[in-house]
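ok so I'm stuck.
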Amino acid sequence: MKKIVCYAIIILILSFISLDIFLALMYLKVGDRLYSQTGFTLFTTHHGIIYLLCISLLVFYFRYERYRLCFWSGCLAALTNLTHTIILHKAFTKPGFENWYYISFTALQVGLLLFTASIITSASRERKWLKVFGITLLILQTTHVVIIIVYFCCADYQLQSTLSQVSFWLGLAANASFGLLIPNFTDEVSKLKSAHHFTLFHKISIGFLAFLVTYFSVYPGLQLYRQCITPSISRIPTAKETAVASRFEAHIFTNSKGDTLLYRLFLPFDYNPETKYPLALCLHHGGAHGNDNVVQVESSFAPFLSGYNMRRNHPSFLLVPQCPVAKSWWSPDIDLSITELMQSLEKQYRIDPKRRYVLGLSGGGYGSWHFIGNHPDLFAAAIPVCGKGDERLVKNMNDVEIWAFHGSEDQLVNVNESRKMVSALKKNGHNVRYTEFAGLGHNIDDQVRGTPGLWDWLFAQRRK
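replied:
not stuck anymore, here's the structure
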């Protein structure tokens, strides 16, 4: 039985290390777009199952060898891994599991730290390769935990982006360290050859396990690979979306680092180069990510602001960028592109630097909170709708006028996200405005557009 367990552990280790190598190659090829692929959920689930099986067999091995401390800490590691795998799957398929994901991920890291520490401190350290594995994994896991703590403590989105990438590679390195266990188990197998006869049943069992693991590795890997090599294109715009976007000029901007950004621009009614005009940065919701430079217009407040009455009463520049797939408004390259684009437009047109505004629904609401938190000097006012912000950044928003909106029954972005931001702003002395629509869900753009006095309020704001 021990021989089967040793062979099975070797097979499982080779399997999930191979999956990690594949994952690393896909990440190098497509970057953050990897996470947006539908096949990524299946891939990570299968990877989690194989990893869990490996930990479980290690626990069995430790019990057989009577490494009690390793056994019990291994049980804890297996339990936290199982919980995290389940919650990870839920987080990818259903909204509202993000907070549980962070909790389970933290528990997983703690479980692994205890597990590796036990390998070093218990009787198992007498075996050379177990000790080397324990020390290596402990160093990697400790570093990983420090990176995670810094990530959650800092409010700098650029640093968070860097730390996220470092965390990704540290995770892969930690998994790769399991390869140090292979010499230990090959040594165990060689010692058992003379003492234990390897029957046909044993061979069939190992062969069947190898087949299952190969299937669980290759199938999701091929699915993910096909999706990654398929060019990222947005959905085909409807005739209405195309017609709405045609009223806006289509442009491409290249930032100082060579990254490109698609955007649409609407000029003020009867534009006069001698007159200064406000600029409204209209951020689209999450369903308009892509590269068509069309669908983002109708997915923002831009069509309403470009309507006849609005452009007569409040003539302004309307800037409507399009966020690519698998990016966000706080991705460093997108953030840089938008801020540099605004500066570039001010060199071309008569834009009043004291009357810049940012507004958006859902994903655009997230973006609105992001920009006034990280670039407060750029904006006089913001209208974040159904968004989520970082409470640690409210101290930066004192000079930005804010009117936030949310539906009390929002199932996509919990209403507490806006409530927390508003509460933090008020505690910081901000005279924030907040409207919550009782009984309404996520799609409240019609109610927001019809809010009495909103637009007169917005275009009256001016930075001091």
